[in-house]
Amino acid sequence: MMVLVLVALVAGASAEWAVRRLACEIEPTVGTVGDCGCEFEDVDSATHEFFGPILRNLTQRKFFQYFQVDLDKACPFWDIEGMCQREACAVDTTTEAPESWVEEDEARRAWAVERTTSVSWVEEGGEEVWIEQGPDMAYIDLLRNPEKFTGYDGDGIWSAIYRENCFQDTEVPATDMLLNAYRRVVRKEGQCLERRIFYRLISGLQSSISTHIAKSEFDWKFLLRENGWLQGLRTLALGRPFANDPVFVARVGAHKERLHNLYFAYLFLLRAATRAKDDLVSYDYDTGNPEDDAMTRELVRILVEDDGCVARHAFDDSMLFKPPEDARMSPLEKALARESVEDLRAEFLGRFRNISKIMDCVTCERCRLWGKLQILGIGTALKILMMEGDAAGLGALQRNEVVALVNTLAQLAKSVDSVHHYWQRRDLKRGLAQWALLLSPLLLLFLTFQSTLKKRNNKIL
């Protein structure tokens, strides 16, 4: 009986601790997403009910299944000591890419052999486009190689990305107060709009990847080795979804800025996809499978069509990389404004190209694959929004860009949905803990009564 009483006391103490701990966790984000005109609640609803299911279906289609990439490039910034040897880090290179794609690539390579060039970035359709090319480019099946927890520590890579791509805090010379007033309008917290967006996109991508890691199934051997048997047994006892919640809270959930940036990156790419509606709807999605290709075209149409959903227009790109237009500006002032915007645009592109090269320093092959894909996805979104309304036109979207854009958008949607599900699980755990806290005194009282009654009966006998 004493053992049962002790169990009741422990259960009560554990329930009280759980309630206090859950009460200290960050509350769900409410209000408007920073730099966007959309409520978090509206984004959650639109993603869960509309965009999430469509994107999950779309990324299962053959066209979006294959991404072309060179995973064997040497790191251009520092020496690396070999690649990760864990099975989870490896990429399955077995692929059945559409035959027409392979033939097209072979024809392009044959044509390239006749040209002598040392340019590593092939630019087609304008200077704002970059497609990495090389003789070792290969198609990777994304469904066979999903983004997941591999045990790889990418802190050094993220530090390099933030450190090496920090904008210089300098002002472009301007001689007119009107131009300076324009700069003040688009500034917030000391950063111009475009530079703030650059940081938020990278931070949002990191938050998304961290959310995927927290959601994915852990490598149990790695978990036991790194955290010991106690943590491993606790994880087994609680079950994977709940057990990974502390990882999400530590890396993303407890950081309001990271949550905002995750939602911002998602809305940014959603806006880009909507802007490129005509190009995406009319794109050639031929893979040699008529039925699957027809479904792809229909899903893309549904994804980008303008049905009034506020999430599609949450990010206002009207001021992005646009020089000020005012009748009071002299021709010189207008020229200075255009030059300033073009310099910033070129700096943006250079930094995203630099990040893609940093991805070649990732020693986890699977992490490198998804890092390069999602950086290209964000770069493609920037290309779309930068060229929208430009006199030179958008230029042709390349196949790899379309694949990267949709898959990156799908990954961000998955992360946003995971955040929503986390709050639901947190509320469930809080409710269970409160019930346990309420029932534990009753259990203790019942056990005490049973013990007293048993002693009394023994005396009577």
Strand order of the largest sheet: 1-4
Please tally the β strands and state the result.
6
**Helix content percent band:** 55-70%
Strand content: under 5%
Mean pLDDT: 74
Task: Please state the structural category.
Answer: mainly alpha
Q: What is the domain tally?
A: 1
**What profile does the largest beta sheet have?**
2 strands, antiparallel
Radius of gyration: 27 Å
Task: Give me the number of helical elements.
Answer: 15
H/E series: HHEHEEEHHEEHHHHHHHHHH
Measure the end-to-end span: 20 Å
What is the molecular shape?
A: globular
Low-pLDDT windows of residues: 3-24, 115-129, 170-190
GO biological process, one term: protein folding in endoplasmic reticulum
Subcellular location: Endoplasmic reticulum membrane
GO molecular function: FAD binding; protein-disulfide reductase activity; thiol oxidase activity
Main location: endoplasmic reticulum
Word description of this protein:
The protein is mostly helical. It is 62% helix and 3% strand. It contains 15 helices and 6 strands. The strands form 3 sheets. The chain has a two-stranded antiparallel ribbon. Strands 2-3 form a two-stranded antiparallel ribbon. Strands 5-6 form a two-stranded antiparallel ribbon. The radius of gyration is 27 Å and the shape is globular. The chain starts with a helix and ends with a helix. May function both as a monomer and a homodimer. It is a peripheral membrane protein. Keywords: Disulfide bond, Electron transport, Endoplasmic reticulum, FAD, Flavoprotein, Glycoprotein, Membrane, Oxidoreductase, Redox-active center, Signal, Transmembrane, Transmembrane helix, Transport. Its main location: endoplasmic reticulum.
